[in-house]
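Supplementary Methods S3. Input chains for the assembly prediction are listed below.
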Amino acid sequence: MLILNRRRLLSGTALVLFTASSAPSRAGTIAGALPWAPGAAAPPRPVVPGPWHFFTPAEGRTVEAIVDRIIPPDPDGPGARDAGCAVFIDRQLAGPFGRAEGLYDHGPFVTGTKQQGPQSRLDPATQYRGALRAIDAYSAQHHDGRPFVDLAAADQDAVIGAIEDGSLPIEDVVTKDFWTMLLKNTRQGFFADPVYGGNRDMAAWKWIGFPGARYDYSDWIDRHNEPYPHAPIGIAEAPLWRPAASK
Amino acid sequence: MRKLPHKDVAIIGLGWTGSIMAHGLSEAGLDVIAFERGPWRDTAQDFPPTYAPDEYRYRVRHELFLRPAQMTFTFRNNPSQTALPIRDWGAFMLGNGVGGGGLHWNAEMWRFEPSQFMLKTHLTERYGAKFIPAGMTIQDWGVTYDELEPHYDRFEYLCGTAGTAGNLRGAIQPGGNPFEGPRSRPYPTPAQKQPFNATLFAKAAREMGHQPFPQPSGNMSQPYTNPLGVTLGPCTFCGYCEWFGCGNYSKASPQTTILPVLVKQPGFTARDNCEVLRIVLDAGGKRATGVVFVDTDGEEWEQPADLVLCCAFTPFNVQLLMLSGVGEIYDPAAKRGNVGRNFTHQTVSTATAFFDPATHRFNPFVASGAIGMCIDDFNGDNFDHGPLGFVGGGYMGQVQTNGRPIETTPVPAGTPTWGAKWKAAVKQNYNSSVYSGSGVHGSFYSYDDVFLDLDPTYKDRFGRPLMRMTIDFHENEHKMSAFLTDRYAEILRAMGATRVDKLPRTGHYDVTDYQTSHLCGGAVMGAEPSTSVVNRYQQSWDVPNLFVIGASSFPQNAGYNPTTTVGALTYWTLDAIVNQYLKAPGPLVQA
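Predicted structure tokens for the full assembly:
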């Protein structure tokens, strides 16, 4: 008979270790057999559509407008707004990412070289809040007092260009570092599994021909230079699982 | 602090090296305890096929990795700068949890070239001592390829490595790597099947006079039962390999090759989520008496042991020595000390090739972690460096591991990073371009101004100094990268690309720019205690009942992925402990 001894060293909660989405792990002892416990797996928790979790309604509209210029709609594929990128970013900022959970946060905070990487004392959620305020202030200053959402597309692009080149000032934030984060987050929302709130209906995957979470191409490794025929599937969805009307 | 009952062996870290040592020593009848800073990990709980293919969770949000809040480093390019903390990972990734780096690796399973182990001697004999650049501190390993060969073989057979032999006992074999050292028998399993891009690369390289062969792979080409009786299943080319755990039991890892047997050994115990803070030395500082670790409640415990094995990842082995007062920390100005000296990484470069979408569909999502066709014509000293004015080299190949779109949507250089033009370029090129992140796997030789020591300012969560990395590229590596990347780009053009964008390694080492996770050195092995931390058996010169095992022993890094050499060195050391040390505990080499 196998002996399973996964004993806790002590009880208490003095130190929590970090994982992205699993429950915090605690010290244990393993001997005799591989540890196994029912229900220990930690699948991702799907984002539920609905009100903003982090953004104010006005901030949410601004982010939708910004991401839709970064990845604009075209006849071939959706833009970032319709793909749900703002929802994705909202839910990320409301969670561990927004709080910079797991990152090194000891001071002193000193601006270094580009090679040394971002050194901001502000977490991503705080950076976004300040940046959205700064973007509207910059828009108003350059475009007759109008906020970003009310600008024409070309003017919106000019404001985004000012974030990209660092000329749009954001208090206590290195604008170019914020731009790097914003661009990454937008693309992540566009291309991540739909379970995180973006890439709605796997639209971005269909658009480029990425089959998503399929896990077995052993019948395809030898088929060189042929179009892959199967539609994408996600962790929690596949076209076949839906009622016919919404396919 | 409470003291736990005595053990024969305390192992720090339960990745590849810790698992192999724990298995071998518990099999030899010893009581072994292994400490792992992270959690126990297994397939069903941590990366089952139902949700393993999640680019955002595992690749972007680093599910399986150490968090910088747990431990990080400070970084600077040179001693004149003030080092700043690495607040989020970039240039390399640190594994966390049982399995360590062996869980999230690609499983690219290379042996180092025989001349690598005699690098300084070899280059001096062929080119003269003056050919080696000033400040370069390469040295011989103190162990030879021939001595390691049986141990390379043992690790490959543990892992079920898929490949085509190039040199069987001195006889060059068709279809394999003609530059490899002699191997005593073929790979345990045949090479993996290859996708379109790799096949085109091999054809173009062959027509140019190079000698292509399949990359040796720890992703299974067929079911395989290893000598311990553990079975792996065939790889399904899912395209979620490196940065991920394998849900199919198809990638060699401690979980899929050794842990199921190790955990049943009567003398073996593991403690997970327990971080070793230091090695305890006796009053004279010449003998380790055990380790101190902290559990998740912040409680510190002492574990007495007769033999202590540092089996953590490279920089953490070095850090444990520094924080425990084993040996002298390297000081480049005073030219003293060896702990932290000869720290190295990798000089990775690549080129992206774009093809006509009407004629080329690569399906980049059909891939394994160690897929690809490679050439070794420009690695090590396989080519004449005399007219080129640099030393070192690297393998190169079409080794594209994925079409995961957050990471892999290549567009031609000069394309805007956003807006309609970016979007159109993504669509145009997604399925008709090839991008191998580490297409050119260049060496990183050691220098007197690339090293590890302790930071004077920044502290870890226990209040101890962070380790400081001082690292930059040198002219030799820039020259090498330019030359290798040019050769690589020539092959991509010959594949029929309409456009090739070269990405040689230029400028300063950038801690935000991912290369590989192949950190090496800092506690290097050698024949002399004056230039090494451990002897040829990875045994501490200063504390003979302490062994420091892993890529921390590499005196410099070759143009290959390091893990197979780490595995070989681990079996080599295991053999020395079981057959020599246990019979007469003490120094295995007299200083």
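Residues 385 and 391 of chain B are 6 Å apart (CA to CA). Chain B touches chain A through 101 residues (CB under 8 Å).
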